[in-house]
Amino acid sequence: MTNSLVPPAGPQRVLALAQLSNSVGDGAYYTTSALYFSQIVGLAPARVGLGLTVGWAVGSLVGVPLGRLADRCGPRGTAVLLALATGLAVASFTVVRGFVPFVLAACAYAAVQSGLAAARQALLAGLVPAGERTGLLAHLQSTLNAGLAVGAGLGGLALHAGTRAAYLGVFALDAVSFLVCAGLLLRLPAVQAVRAIPVGQRGLERKRHGMAVLGDRPYVVVALLNTVLLLRLPLLSLVLPLWITRRTEAPAWLVSALFVLNTGAVMLFQVRAARGVTGLGTATRAVRRAGWVMLAACVVFALSAGASLWVAVGVLVVGAVLQVVAEMGHSAGSWQLSFDLAPEGRVGEYQGLFGTGVTVARTLGPLLLTTLLVEWGAPGWLLLGGAMLAASYAMGPAARWAAGRRVEETVGEPALLP
Prior knowledge:
The chain is mainly α. It has two domains: 9-193, MFS general substrate transporter like domains (Growth Hormone, Chain: A, Up-down Bundle); 200-418, Growth Hormone, Chain: A. 82% of the residues lie in helices and 0% in strands. It has helices at 11-40, 45-73, 75-92, 99-127, 133-161, 164-186, 202-208, 212-215, 217-229, 233-247, 254-273, 280-303, 309-340, 347-375, 378-416. Helix 2 packs parallel to helix 4, helix 5 (133-161) packs antiparallel against helix 11 (254-273) and helix 9 runs parallel beside helix 14 (347-375). The termini are far apart. Mean pLDDT is 88; it is low at 196-210 and 413-418.
């Protein structure tokens, strides 16, 4: 794995450029969308939140079937079509004038976004050797953060202008970014579709009555444990801002400083953090270490309550450093596990399930964590840290169980041959 922030030339670099293109648009969209829907469209904030929650709930349900579609129809073509569909869904927001059209547009947006993520993972698996995938995903994560930062800056300009035209310009930018992403993905080599179930898996498929991943209990357990660890996602964007302003003496500007710290750290160090993760053993150890570091971060964040201004600032910075270290370790380990435990020919379907952890964490996490942390205070932080540590330790046995299932399927193939 290279230490460079730029992936090697070829498919890896094209995938990174595709990631960069749409992350710039997404950064601008995420910065401005809530205010656009509430101030320009005129929807009540509670209705905006409800519509987005419904949308991402739908997205979490369709990720698996769209991932399976990528496996069966070819991941490159599916990814290109879903990127174009995402651009169209973003554009549809510009004509929304009421709550019901907003919910429909949000459902369409979340559905194609979830499917695009699964299809791109299947495309990556088909183009990049197994030993290089985690390294490339680290590059893509760094690229994602860089693009989001640039996009957030552009979104800030629109917020400063505060006009309908400025907001519509952001949505146009995001829509075009997905068109550019589709064009870049189209430049990649085609990956062969899986049109038939391997002979050795036919009996297994019949037992599962449909999509294989939903009957693969070990992999489902791994995905559920990963969802618990992904509850860290709303911390930076929602929980810490509320915690800082309501529970500490720290100034509100620290929210922005911690966001910059997190984004910059991932940009600079995610590739290095993933360098030692090369197989199931190193992946589960990385996740376990991340659990301990996340517990330490939660303890430190809890200590910031009631501290004097500058002590609180220092404590919160230390907590944010620990949190981003845990984030990078967990990301590297989970990427490796998600690919290594998925059977060949079903990567899109399995990634579709694994990716639902993000949508579930972003859908349920805000309500759960604001109650647990902002309302309960220090005990809530300790409970969250303990839950994440427990999930990180359970990941090892779950991964070995899933790996054993893969071996059983492989060994069982000859007996099923006619």
